[in-house]
Structures are given as structure tokens and as C-alpha cells.
Write a structure and sequence with these properties.
With about 220 residues, this protein is of the alpha/beta class. Helix content is about 35%, strand content about 20%. β2 (about 45-50), α3 and β3 form a beta-alpha-beta unit. The radius of gyration is 16 Å and the shape is globular. The chain binds 2-phosphoglycolic acid (PGA).
């Protein structure tokens, strides 16, 4: 199984979110190859919208085998932590949670200890963490099954890292045998296929190119072509 994970980051309002889902649905409906791949889990699409749109996206897309992920999860289980989004509140809503994205590590000073706690709490609530690492200096947390390698210089710059470098970085990471390796950083409809068809890479994480639903669909289409 290969993954295409869409990270909307802090973009879109409610209407735009609904429209995005409508366009993706329409496109899935019109592509029988894609429908088969999603139905048989050969391809798994995970959409990570801002938290207020999780249930909207789930309602609209889950019947078409599209999965939903949160962009973060609280280190706290419950209690007096205003604004935190906890494991229990995500249970049944999100199957995945992005943890340790470089934007949170860099802007919000998330530490490796904090990220480990988030991974643990996600697993405790049966949410699959997608652990983002920026490079060899960020530890590959052993109990996270999905590792998304996202070199900072490739994020949002249009300068995707070439595949040889990505694979060589993977080889130097301390990956467990059962851990999946995802690449993220300026993935789009032009370069997606190269990553998706490589046997060492289990999928891609898409930011900018997922914001326009038609471009996201083109990226999916290119990946399965
Ligand atoms: P990008 O973002 O596709 O815009 O580079 C990827 C990410 O930050 O997850």
C-alpha cells in the first residue's frame, strides 16, 4: 500500500473545505482505476484539514475510502488545557495525526520529548501518528509506524529533493524494519510519480499542491498512471 497524504496546513474556510471535498469526490467518481485502488487499499489517501473541518471532511469522503488525519494531537489526555485537541476527542474522527511537523518544531519550539509524548498518546487512542523528521538530526521515534522525511529547504519552495538524496537519507536514518518511509517537500503532479513508484518510498506528503483540489487530483492521477 502507498500513501498520498494531503496537509492543508492553516488554509481554507468552511465553504472552501466543502468545495474541495466536492471536487475530489467528483474526480474519484469519474476514475474507475482510482476507485479500485482506493477500495482495495492499494492506495491510501489521507486528508489532513484544519481541526474544525475534520468531521466535514470525514462525512464527505469516508464513503469513498478517503481517510482523515489531524495536523497535530495534544500531549495531554484531558483536563484544564484550553485549546488543546486531545486523543479522546480525535478518537473515531481521525485515523491519523501528523506529529512533529517542522513548522511546529521551528515556530512552536516542539521538542523531541514533547513529540514522543504526542506519538505515545496517539497510539494509546488508536490514532496512527505520522512522524515528521527534518533530517538525520531528528530522531526516528521507534513506535511511530509512519515516518515522513521532510527536508526544510524543500518545504513550500518548489525545490523538491532529488530521489537519490531522499533514498540515501533514508538509508542513514535509523529506521525499523516495519516502519514506512514517506517523502514530503514540494511534491506535485510533475514529480509525484517518481517518489511513488520507488520501492524504498511508501508515499508522499503534499502541502502546497493539495490546496487546489484539481491540482491534488492531478497529483494522484500522475501517481497511479
Ligand atoms: P509542501 O509542504 O508540499 O508545500 O512543500 C509539505 C509539508 O510541509 O508537509
Amino acid at each position: 500500500m502507498k500513501y498520498i497524504i494531503a496537509n492543508w496546513k492553516a488554509n481554507k474556510n468552511f465553504l472552501e473545505a466543502a468545495e474541495w471535498c466536492g471536487v475530489l469526490l467528483h474526480n474519484i467518481e469519474s476514475n474507475s482505476l482510482l476507485k479500485t485502488k482506493l477500495g482495495t487499499d492499494e492506495l491510501r489517501i489521507v486528508v489532513c484539514p484544519p481541526l474544525p473541518f475534520l468531521s466535514l471532511v470525514k462525512e464527505k469522503l469516508q464513503s469513498h475510502f478517503v481517510h482523515v488525519g489531524s495536523q497535530d494531537i495534544s500531549q495531554y489526555e484531558k483536563g484544564s488545557y484550553t485549546g488543546e485537541v486531545t486523543g479522546p476527542s480525535l478518537t473515531g474522527l481521525a485515523q491519523y495525526a501528523i506529529v512533529g511537523h517542522s513548522e511546529r518544531r521551528n515556530n512552536l519550539r516542539e521538542t523531541n520529548d514533547l513529540i514522543q509524548r504526542k506519538v505515545d498518546i496517539a497510539l494509546q487512542y488508536h490514532i496512527q501518528p505520522i512522524l515528521c523528521v527534518r533530517g538525520l538530526d531528528d530522531p526516528v521515534i521507534a513506535n511511530a509506524q509512519i515516518i515522513a522525511y521532510e527536508p526544510v529547504q524543500a518545504i513550500g519552495t518548489g525545490k523538491n529533493e532529488d530521489i537519490a538524496t531522499v533514498v540515501s537519507q533514508k538509508k542513514q536514518m535509523k529506521m525499523g524494519e516495519n516502519q514506512l518511509f514517506i517523502y514530503g517537500g514540494s511534491v506535485n503532479e510533475e514529480n509525484c510519480k517518481e517518489y511513488m513508484s520507488h520501492s524504498e518510498i511508501h508515499g508522499v506528503l503534499v502541502g502546497t499542491a493539495c490546496l487546489n483540489p484539481q491540482q491534488f487530483y492531478s497529483t494522484i492521477e500522475a501517481a497511479i498512471s
